[in-house]
Design brief:
By secondary structure, the chain is an alpha/beta fold. It has two domains: about 10-255, Aspartate Aminotransferase, domain 2, CATH 3.40.640.10; about 260-390, Aspartate Aminotransferase, domain 1 (Alpha-Beta Complex), CATH 3.90.1150. Helix content is about 35%, strand content about 15%. The strands form two sheets. The protein has a seven-stranded mixed sheet, with helices on both faces. The protein has a five-stranded mixed sheet with strand order 8-9-12-11-10, with helices on one face. The N and C termini lie far apart (about 60 Å). The structure holds pyridoxal-5'-phosphate. Pyridoxal-5'-phosphate binds near residues 85 and 87.
């Protein structure tokens, strides 16, 4: 009997969560598009809100359970909850673990919805205290600690700065005050970085990005100890309702099968493209954790196996030229999101509400670039022809 906890990452990507369909013998589990499941003969003792029993699709669904099994296994965690989007997973963690008098420490540059939830909505509505700090600086975190600190939330690599925070060191700080550490590991995926093994309590993913990988569905996940995940399931899934559709869960289950291969290619392409951009005279800066020039390159090397495909860069040019550059690209698609098969680029402009927290080189706006799975030579050729069209 093969021990499913001992198998390698690629084998897990393929086999965990899949099984022979008992009814038809199909070697792929089907999509179960149903709201409700047959009740047991005696339902008088039933816990109608049990998030681990198939009763009603808002309390869990078959495809959701299969995907949770696979993701828990890939992150090396005890359990997983899958929700409708990455933001739903993040909001679920904050809603579940922050009570009225709680204090949270969070990176000052993080996903925009996290910034708004923690900087605006939670403090204004519930009196939560938030400290936004540069979490790549351990001293800033230590200084921000308070007796009521319940959660430290980091995003590493961070969106869009690619800033790296030291998961192992921050987990020690969190433990020293009895706080939980949650890590948004979306940019890395479990193939490049496994925060639970470095001491984190919760790992959060936008499944919309690398884990699904094909730009055709949305989802979010939190992985960690069963005791913590059950709380999120009850509070943020059953009673808030951010449940994933069975179809999206199935699509993500299909996408994740090739995660290992895709992350290798994204990372190889990412490094080649970042090196090309860094050498190019009209490029003002490149922020990519795989470059020696990245301020936390050594920490990235310590906690990641490769450096993924996302970078931010800026041109020695004005706003109009940045826009012209993006519109001159022929393969690379101007669109939000990251981690798809195709390369995606976004020019943010200089008016981001988080601008005062960005490193100085980001202040004139930046290009966030998710390097896709195309041939690296073709991506670089596209950049070159767009530079030429803009006389850069
Ligand atoms: C996209 C993203 C999210 C939000 O995920 P959605 O699936 O869009 O809700 C959260 N964190 C990071 C780092 C992201 O890139």
């Amino acid at each position: 009997m093969i021990n499913k906890t001992k198998i390698g990452f690629s084998t897990k990507c393929i086999h965990v969560g899949n099984d022979i369909d008992k009814e038809t013998g199909a070697i792929r589990r089907p999509i179960t598009m149903a709201n409700s499941y047959r009740l047991p003969e005696d339902s008088s003792e039933l816990n109608w809100s049990d998030p681990n029993q198939l009763i009603y699709t808002r309390t869990t669904s078959a495809n959701q359970i299969y995907l949770q099994e696979k993701l828990a296994s890939l992150e090396g965690g005890e359990d997983c909850v899958v929700l409708s989007s990455g933001v739903s997973a993040l909001a679920g963690v904050f809603f579940t673990f922050l009570n009225q008098d709680a204090h949270i420490i969070c990176s000052n540059v993080s996903y925009i919805a996290v910034y708004r939830l923690l900087n605006e909505y939670f403090p204004e509505k519930y009196g939560i205290e938030t400290s936004l700090v540069d979490t790549s600086n351990l001293d800033e975190i230590k200084k921000a600690l308070r007796p009521n600190t319940k959660l430290i939330h980091i995003e590493t690599p961070g969106n869009p700065t690619t800033r790296i925070s030291d998961i192992a060191e921050i987990s020690k700080i969190a433990k020293s005050v009895g706080a939980l550490l949650s890590v948004d590991s979306t940019f890395a995926s479990p193939f490049l970085q496994q925060p639970l093994s470095l001491g984190a309590d919760l790992v959060i993913h936008s499944l919309t990005k690398y884990i699904n990988g094909h730009g055709d569905s949305m989802g979010g996940a939190v992985i960690g100890k069963k005791e913590l995940i059950d709380k999120i399931k009850s509070q943020a899934m059953v009673n808030i309702g951010g449940v994933i559709s069975p179809f999206n869960a199935w699509l993500i289950m299909r996408g994740v099968v090739t995660l290992n291969l895709r992350m290798k290619q994204h990372s190889e392409n990412g490094l080649k493209v970042a090196q090309f951009l860094e050498e190019y005279p009209s490029v003002e800066f490149v922020a990519y954790p795989g470059l020696k020039s990245h301020p936390q390159h050594e920490i990235a090397k310590k906690q990641m196996t490769m450096f993924s495909g996302v970078m931010s860069f800026g041109l020695k040019a004005d706003v109009d030229t940045h826009n012209k550059f993006v519109n001159s690209l022929e393969l690379i698609v101007p669109a939000v999101s990251i981690g798809h098969d195709e390369s995606l680029i976004v020019y943010t402009g200089p008016n981001d509400e988080r601008n005062h927290f960005y490193p100085p080189e980001f202040k004139n706006g930046h290009l966030r670039f998710s390097v896709g799975l195309e041939d690296a030579e073709d991506i670089i050729a596209d950049l070159k022809q767009a530079f030429k069209k803009c006389s850069l």
